[in-house]
Amino acid sequence: MMPRRLPLFLFVAALCIAPLVLRGYPLLMLNYVGLSVIVVLGLVLLTGVGGLTSFGQAAFVGMGAYAAAWLTTAMSWNPWLSLIAGLLLTTAAALLLGWVTLRMSGHYLPLSTLAWGIAIYLLFGNSQTLGGQTGITGIPPLSLFGWQLTESWQFHILIWGVVLSIVWTVHNMLDSREGRAMRALKGGVLMAEAMGVNTTRFKIILFVLAAQYACVAGWIYAYMQRFVNPTPFSLGQGIEYLFMGVVGGIGDLWGGVAGSFLYALPREWLHSHLSALLGRSGSFEGIVFGVLMIVILQRAPEGLWPHLRRLWPLREPAPVTASTAGATPLDVRPKPAKGDTILRLDAVTKRFGGLVANNAISFEVRAGEVLALIGPNGAGKSTLFNCISAVNPPSSGSIRFLGKPVEHCDSRRVARMGMSRTFQHVRLLPRMSVLDNVALGAHLRGRHSFVASAWRLDRAQELRIQATARDALERCGLCAKAHLPAGSLPLGSQRVVEIARALAADPSLLLLDEPAAGLRYLEKRELAKLLERLRDEGLAILLVEHDLDFVMELADRVVVMDFGEKLAEGMPQEIRRHPAVIEAYLGGVGDST
Fold first, then answer.
1. How far is Cα 208 from Cα 90, in angstroms, rounded to an integer?
2. What gap in Å lies between CA 331 and CA 80, rounded to an integer?
3. 65: number of Cβ within 10 Å
4. How confident is the model over 442-451, as pLDDT tens digits?
5. Strand partners for 557
6. Under 8 Å between Cβ of 55 and 114
7. Neighbours of 149 (CB within 10 A)
8. DSSP symbols for 97-131
9. Which burial class, exposed, middle or buried, applies to 532 when counting CB atoms under 10 A from its CB (0-12, 13-18, 19+)?
């Protein structure tokens, strides 16, 4: 099999050789492709990683270009100072636009990017200070240590040096605590927030980074052209950037690089040769290329990069384990003594308009016990579960966790305090490894920022997080599957991975939402043994479950709900004999013994 890094070395070697064998327009075209790659890499972060669609990246390219052009011609600034000014302007604009638009969801988000993309483009064309439609000419050459950059081969070195730097830093960032949080955005806000991820913060970070990359591309473009006008920063160009990412494979960094080549070079070839082939002049390449795009999107919805990777089998590196890395798991928090009250609910009520989903529910959960919350469908169990985990605050009543009121906290706050949960419907990131999914649970236990991650200043912390995730997997019996994609596991194993992820947060209280749903008999037995071990370790477990046999064999105490009311509470044997429970939930079939 081919060594894993060989394709990268070949690519870098080709870039080094290109200025020696290419002259004139071909080398200039390669430079334009490189500028597109810089913008598309930002879209890989924004759309491929964060799941946020933007059609307005060309406007940020224009900000960088116009900042360079105006500041160096009208204000006589140093070109490198204009880069700093352009980045500051773009960051401020991205923060403002992101604060407004990233609150939207569904189709409203991409539509809003269309709106401000058009607005900024029109601003460029209608501002006489920026030269209107004529643009700005006479941009001085870019110089570095007294060396003027005027030749295509010089810009080739600059552009592709920037590309490789972005690829390296983004790769490092995604392979870290902060990167896992960014990738968690595609798993849904509910799951990410429950793991302690500030989803709003990370959306803004991705949006600003994508804008900054576009700004750098525009800044280089201005000095390479020595002239700017609004045309290259139109909405159409913004859509083309997104197409480049989608064609290559917007979920992968190298897919963004490949997409820029696969989009720009064939399009240029069609533009140059199609008129000659048809014997008529016109923009026929747009028609042909549009058809090709439809075929690609239909046949390869994940882009062409996954198909290109199959052309060379790569040798996978040996997994780095905690033992080989010499790392120790993260420090754990002091745990309450067995029998101490962990969670107390007093008269918790949740209303949705005139509907009372939970009415004055009270009970407590102690350290070292499993408390099961059962009831027929529509009893209000999931609503109460969401109140406890701070997904939806109660309308009234008190919820105290470790002695502190949490009824008005958010999910991240209660997660930081030591409450962790799983979900009724499995919420894993299927393409991420099992180990990385579990490491996401330890997000709040790390401290380094995405900047430190990008420059690999967080490696010691990252090794400890990985060791913590591996320790959680070992407790759950899944260590052998650590490096498999989480989506490749059967449902039963995926549910155990969710429990391991919750354990990586070092909780005092574990909330399990129907963990046995969809499992076979033997899988349920293994799950019960795991929960018994966790209970023996002193962990408090609150369990919502429909499988009565599973509950009655495992739970220390049971709370029964019906129509939003607390119907009964007691030991499993008492619940089996309770007349109201038999009538409301067990269908009249009781235990005769």
1. 8
2. 45
3. 32
4. 999 999 999 9
5. 371
6. yes
7. 18
8. HHHHHTT--TTHHHHHHHHHHHHHHHHHHH-GGGT
9. middle
Determine how many CB atoms are found less than 10 A away from the CB of residue 502: 25
Q: How far apart are CA 357 and CA 384, in angstroms?
A: 8
3-state secondary structure of 228: strand
CA–CA gap between residue 387 and residue 375 (Å, rounded): 17
How would you list the strands of the sheet with 540-544, edge to edge? 419-421, 509-513, 540-544, 370-374, 557-562, 565-570
| In contact, 178 and 161? CB cutoff 8 Å | no
Burial class (CB in 10 A: 0-12, 13-18, 19+), 143: middle
Structure tokens, 158: 């600059």
pTM for the full predicted model: 0.92
Question: Angle, nearest 10°, between helix axes 79-101 and 108-126?
Answer: 140
Residue-wise pLDDT tens digits, 360-415: 999 999 999 999 999 888 889 989 999 999 999 999 999 999 999 999 999 999 99
Q: How would you write 63-90 as a 3-class SS string?
A: HHHHHHHHHHHCCCCCHHHHHHHHHHHH
Q: What is the DSSP letter of 591?
A: -
Contact partners, residue 497, CB within 8 Å, separation at least 6 = 428, 434, 437, 438, 473, 476, 478, 486, 489
Give the pair of three-digit tokens for residue 542. Answer: 């609150």
Contact indicator for 110, 118 with CB cutoff of 8 Å: no
Predicted confidence (pLDDT) per residue in 66-119, tens digit: 999 999 999 999 999 999 999 999 999 999 999 989 888 778 889 999 999 999
The DSSP-derived string for 121-157 is HHHHHH-GGGTTTT-EE-PPPEEETTEEE-SHHHHHH
DSSP H/E element including 512 = strand 509-513
Choose among 489, 367, 342, 510: nearest CA to 441: 510
DSSP string, 394-405: -SEEEEEETTEE
* Torsion (CA) 294, 295, 301, 307 in degrees, nearest 10: -140
DSSP 8-state code for residue 264: H
